[in-house]
Each structure stands twice: as structure tokens, then as C-alpha cells.
Amino acid sequence: MKEFTYTITDKEGIHARPAGELVKLAKEYTSGISVFKDGKKADAKKVFGLMGLGVKQGMEITVQVEGDDEDAAAAAMETFLKENL
Amino acid sequence: MTGKEVLGMEVSEKKVSGKKFLGKTVYSGSTMGKVMVLRNHQEPIRRTKVEDAEQEIGRVHGALEDAKQQLAELYEKAVKEVGESSAAIFEVHQMMLEDDDYLDAIFQVIRTEMVNAEYAVAVTGDNFAGMFAAMDDEYMQARAADVKDISSRLIRILSGQGGADFAAMEPSIIVADDLSPSETVQMDKKKILAFVTVHGSTNSHTAILARMMNIPALIGVPLNLDEIQTGMTAIVDGAAGEVIFEPTESQCSEAEEKIRMEQEKLRLLQGLKGKKNETKDGRTIHIYANIGSVSDVGYVLENDAGGIGLFRSEFLYLGRDDFPTEEEQFQAYKQVVQTMGQKKVIIRTLDIGADKQADYFELGKEDNPALGYRAIRICLKQPEIFKTQLRALLRAAAYGNLSIMYPMIISVEEVKQIYAIVEEVEQELKRDEIPYRVPEQGVMIETPAAVMISDELAELVDFFSIGTNDLTQYTLAIDRQNQRLEDFYNPHHKAILRMIKMVVENAHKCGKWAGICGELGADTALTEEFVNMGVDELSVAPPMVLKVREKVRAM
Hints:
The complex is a heterodimer of chains A (85) and B (555).
Chain A: E1 2-7, H1 16-26, E2 32-37, E3 40-43, H2 47-52, E4 60-66, H3 70-84
Antiparallel strand pairs in A: 1-4, 2-3, 2-4
Chain B: H1 3-16, E1 20-22, E2 24-27, E3 30-38, H2 53-82, H3 84-96, H4 100-113, H5 117-133, H6 138-158, E4 172-176, H7 181-186, E5 192-197, H8 205-213, E6 217-219, E7 233-237, E8 242-245, H9 249-269, E9 286-291, H10 297-302, E10 307-312, H11 326-339, E11 344-348, H12 376-381, H13 383-397, E12 402-406, H14 412-431, E13 440-445, H15 448-452, H16 454-460, E14 463-466, H17 468-476, H18 494-509, E15 513-516, H19 527-533, E16 537-540, H20 545-554
Parallel strand pairs in B: 3-4, 4-5, 5-6, 9-10, 9-16, 10-11, 11-12, 12-13, 13-14, 14-15, 15-16
Antiparallel strand pairs in B: 1-8, 2-6, 3-7, 7-8
């Protein structure tokens, strides 16, 4: 299992559009990907759940990736977050 | 439909024939053509038992494909016509339709209750919308509307209501209760002669898009849509703010003449581009344009206005679910000043309240909104809203010829309070080393109080802009929306003209300038009088710039 944390710098937080893009990316991998915020967990492949975390600027999220392609998936998630959020 | 209703319609059809209906003009111009009525299909969704759950689920899958296809097309169209940021919502809707939780919930309802797909989608949509509405975050609460929107799109497809078929449409006058952005964007511009809506405000999506698309539009027209049929003939006269259904022959020929003359005039006016606003004896006046959104800047340049005399910043606040961020505002203001080059851009700070409402301001209902909690009063009572806008304005001022104008002023103290807040904002920007400039600052003169103390105000501010719409309403004590008062309403009332003269004189005594940005500024019957009074600037709707210039040059 791979795990990393990231602090959101985007002003709007994880709002609808980036959430959608993140889901699109997550679905490219077979690994299970979860996003945690304050103990709440969401599946990174489900846009409503992800938005439902209500992640805002300055908040820290933890991403957990587990599965056959976890290395590639975790790297892709991290790059996406850094570039977009 | 019962026989009685049909009968009622026949009677009422006669009632609307040849009758004039008045509304508010959003975009001027005359046109005549066939009517197309868009009705909101909000029929209750029936719950029916089904034998084969998997067949219903198959229907949902089919509808999903159609919905995604529709949204992809809407997105492409919207990108071209209204830009990528406004179009993004359609892309988000596509992603929502792929959400596994949402789809699983729909399938679950079908399988466990053995019910039809329409019902399952409706129930799921309501549940998800409810979940978002319950979140303690205004942005997320607003996403409830998106969930409802995608759910009703699915239901429309499932129940075979594909929506109005715009592709096969003849060029028409669109008549509707109000239009959603997706409805407006779906239509082929070339096929729309005019918009006529019962609801909507001058800042609604319909209005904004109508202006952007350059189509005559009337809103707030008191129509009973049951009395209007698709296929009727109608005349829309934007200048008079009226629409006539099933016009008489004489009304038709009158309209034809008017449309022909409008086109001829438009052609002649084009020759005035690049010419000065100068009278025969060498006096000049600035003619600027009033706009309400970033995309209107094109019309300002197209009509050769000398600058923007009134940029209503409300568009940034209306038609959305939460306050615009500083960055969002900064980008919008910066884009306008940069597009305008060295030309002056006067941005009026937030003038919300009265007839312009946004739910998230939570202003509440007032008995007398025109005399209520609005404009600068909100800004002074809720300085955090005001400061965000001021920060964006001061930052954008570093990129061009921007001026700030404050609405609804009644006292010298208010101006001093504003200046104190501007000072605070300036200090913050300086501390954070963010580039900014404190630009020219002026006030709107739109209350009789401001007129009477304009000598004192002139010492404090850089300029005056007279907002004649509100000034007239407050001076004559006449509500302009009240049609019963029409006979009492005289826009050329001596009291107003004297007030304008007084304001201009008081400005000049202090070496300041004074302009007019209300509708009166575009009233060519008064142009000569304004020039004689020494009015320095007239700010008018973009299509009026060349008309006023023509008048000045004829003096």
C-alpha cells in the first residue's frame, strides 16, 4: 500500500471540476484509491463522495492507494494534486 | 386538458390579439416573426411497478449515453459562444452522470422496489440533492441544483421528452417563463429573432446571454403563457419595451417600417465611427458606454465609445451561489481595463439589493427595497464583502485606466468611511507587496440628498456620475415599475434638469468633472441641453453611442 499526504493550495478547494478530473484519472488505474480528510473517507473514483469531503484551501488530505498498479497510481495522483490543487 | 380550458384559451387568444404587453428591455432592436413558446415540463413523475428490473436498468444505461452525448454537445457549443469558464458546468454534469454511488443508488431503487426508471432517478436525485443541501458549505449546498439538473435531464430522456427540438426550428421569437442557461445556449443564434420572458431580471442568465448574443430581449413581460401559442405572429419593439401578439395589419406595416428605418439608420451611423463628439462651435463631450459584463466590452469597442462610464460589477455577484473571490474579480476587472487600452473604465462597486437580489447575501424581504438595505449600505455594514471587491479593484487599477465609483451615497460621512476602508486595503496590499494603484474615485449622484450636498461632496471626490434612473424615482416619488403611475411620470421634469445643472456647477467649482450614466444620458432630446449645461460626459448603452454622437455633431 502506498500513502501520502497533501495540503490543498487551490483557493476553491476540491470543487466540482477538479474533483471530476481527479476521478477520471483515478479510474485509469485498477488499484483502490481512497482520500481521507479529518477521518472521513471517500473513494477517489466517485465524484460526489469526493466533493462531499468538502476539502478547502489549507486542508490536509491523505491518499491511500492499494493494488497491482499502486506505484504508478500514487505517483499520478500526487502529480495531479500538485499541478491542479 | 378539459374542454373548458380549451374554450378558455380560445377566448383569451382573442384577448391577446393586437394587445401591447410591456416589459423591460434587456437588449434593444425591433423584429417581427413567428412565436415559439417554451414551456417548463414539470409533470409529476409516476411510480409504476415493473416486472423486469434489469430491463429498467438497461433503459437507464441508454438514457445515460444520450445524456452524456447531449452534455458533450452543449459543452462544445457553450465554449464557442460564452467561453470556457461558463461552459465548464456542462463538463461537470457529465462527470456526475458517471458517479458510481449515484448510479448504484438508482439501480438499487429499481431492484428492491421493482419500479420504473423515471421514479428511481427522481428519488435518487432528490436524496443526493438533499445530501448536498445539508452540508455546512455554501458551495456544496449549491451543488444540489446540479444534481437536480442531471436527474431531470435523465428523466426527460427516459420519458421521451427530448426537450424542444431547436434544430428544426424556424427563426422565431422565443417566449418563455424564464430560460435556463442550458436552454439559451442550446439554441442556434441565427434562429432566434428575440427573447420574451415573463420572469428574469436584467442580470439573469437570459439577459446576459441575450446581450452577448446581440438579440432583442424583453423580460418581466406580464404574459399568461396559456394564452400564447407557438406559431402566432409577434412584433417585438425593444426601444418601446413592448411585444404585440397577432398584430393587426396596420401594426404590422408600422413595425415593418420601423425595422426598415432602424436598419437604414444603423447603416448611416456606422459612418460616424472615429469622428469626434464635437459641436459645430467646437464644444466637446465624452461619450462612454454602460456595460454589465466582461463580454460586453466588444460592443463598447464596436460602437466606438470613448470609454466605459458605468461598469456594473453586479454581474460578478448575481446568478451564482456564493460570493466571487478576489482573484475572480481581479481577473475580470483586469481583462476589461487591458482590453480597453488607455481608455477610461469606471467600475461601480456592488449595487445589490432593491431589484437585484442574490440569495447568498441573505438580505431578506423588505417592505421598501428601493429605500432599503442596498448598495453602499451593504458595503459599509459588511465591510468584508466590500474589502474583497476593493482589493480586486486596486489590484486591477495597476493594469490600466480604472476608476472606482460608489453608488447610493447620501452623506459626506459615508465617503469618509469608504476612504478609511480604501486606506486599510491599500495598507494590506502594500504590506503583502502586491502590485496596486489607488485610482480616481467618484460617487454616483442618485439621491436628492447627494444633489443638495454636492458642493461638499465635490471637495472630497474626483468626479460625479448622475444616476438619473434612481434620482428620478426618488425625486418624483414614483416607482418606475408601477404602470399605474405612467401618466404622472415625466423623465424631463424640471426638478431633475435643475438638479443635474446644480450638480454639474458644484463639480466644476471644485475643478471636478460630472457625467450622467442613467437612461436620461441617452435621451437625444436632451443632449443639446446637457452640452449647454456643461455636462462633461454621457455614459449610454453601447448601441446609443453613435446616436448621441450624431446629435452632438448636429448642434
